[in-house]
């Protein structure tokens, strides 16, 4: 559905690239899913149009998949395009209170994320997936449309027994918000944070952490109410209302996901980040 001339530019400048013209705005999820359905490789990669990759980025990703057959997704080391010694994300975290975020966001790169390690999910701006995993758990959830769809996929990957690996040698530079908007993002964050909980958070762990989850949502609401004159704050509140109304739809999906769960509570809890140890927030 692009109207900015980008389709003509890609056809002219990169004739070897297969361009999928969808004809309508299907959101981030719809566009990515169309591309992944059309792709034929055993490894599928999502890469934002506002990124630049390090020369060794792709080789590092493929090497990680080769070395770790249990890994279903690889997260890149994403640095800011204009401040290349600062992080956008070193993979995503998910807190016990149901709040997702980017590891290391805005931090200066001082070697603190140079270890290959398990993370909760790969940021969709530069994420790699094993086709075998996607064949099992499905693609991005189109109901998310934009925001947190990558975290949702991380949830489903872990629940199905797959691992997500952060690879620090897979470096990408991200021109953050070059094609996004804070008001739009605030609405979908408000809604999709709740979608993640309804759809994925196991009941056994919710019983342990429900007070933390409620407090996390209340903190979001309270912050938005304090700044209610701002468009982004009002959008966040509208998103929370939409998230509550979306409970029945997400609950139907939840039944199938939880029925096929292969990970224990202890293993899953080890993947969730304590509230005081986030390294940043989304």
What is the CATH topology descriptor of the largest domain?
Answer: Spore Coat Polysaccharide Biosynthesis Protein SpsA, Chain A
Number of helical segments? Answer: 10
Q: Please provide the count of β strands.
A: 9
Q: Which CATH top level class of the largest domain fits?
A: Alpha Beta
Percentage of helical residues? 40-55%
Detailed description of the structure:
- This protein has two domains: 27-174, Spore Coat Polysaccharide Biosynthesis Protein SpsA, Chain A; 182-267, no CATH class.
- Strands 1, 2, 3, 4, 7, 8 and 9 form a seven-stranded mixed sheet that branches. Strands 5-6 form a two-stranded antiparallel sheet.
- The chain has helices at residues 6-13, 27-38, 57-67, 131-137, 149-159, 182-200, 203-226, 231-245, 247-259, 265-271; strands at 43-47, 51-53, 71-80, 87-89, 92-94, 100-102, 117-118, 126-130, 163-174.
- The chain is α+β, with helices and mostly antiparallel strands.
- Helix 6 packs parallel to helix 8 (231-245) and helix 6 (182-200) crosses helix 9 (247-259).
- The longest helix has 24 residues, at 203-226.
- The chain starts with 5 loop residues before the first helix and ends in an 11-residue tail after the last helix.
- It contains ten helices and nine strands.
């Amino acid at each position: 559905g692009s109207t900015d001339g980008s389709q003509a530019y890609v056809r002219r400048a990169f004739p070897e690239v297969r361009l999928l013209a969808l004809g309508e705005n299907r959101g981030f999820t719809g566009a990515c899913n169309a591309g992944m359905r059309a792709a034929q490789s055993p490894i599928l990669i999502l890469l934002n149009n506002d990124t630049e990759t390090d020369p060794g980025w792709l080789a590092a990703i493929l090497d990680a998949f080769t070395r770790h057959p249990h890994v279903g997704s690889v997260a890149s080391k994403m640095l800011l395009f204009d401040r290349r010694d600062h992080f956008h994300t070193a993979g995503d975290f998910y807190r016990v209170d149901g709040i997702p975020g980017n590891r290391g966001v805005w931090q200066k790169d001082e070697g603190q994320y140079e270890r290959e390690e398990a993370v909760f999910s790969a940021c969709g701006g530069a994420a790699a997936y094993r086709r075998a995993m996607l064949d099992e758990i499905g693609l991005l959830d189109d109901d998310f449309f934009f925001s947190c769809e990558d975290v949702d996929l991380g949830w489903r990957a872990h629940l199905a027994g797959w691992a997500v690996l952060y690879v620090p040698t897979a470096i990408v530079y991200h021109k953050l918000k070059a094609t996004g908007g804070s008001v739009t993002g605030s609405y979908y964050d408000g809604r999709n944070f709740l979608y993640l909980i309804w759809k994925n958070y196991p009941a056994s762990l919710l019983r342990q952490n429900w007070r933390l989850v409620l407090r996390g949502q209340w903190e979001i609401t309270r912050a938005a109410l304090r700044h209610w004159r701002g468009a982004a704050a009002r959008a966040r509140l509208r998103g929370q209302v939409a998230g509550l109304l979306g409970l029945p739809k997400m609950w139907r999906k939840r039944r199938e996901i939880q029925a096929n769960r292969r990970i224990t509570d202890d293993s899953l809890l080890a993947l969730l980040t304590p509230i005081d140890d986030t390294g940043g927030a989304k």
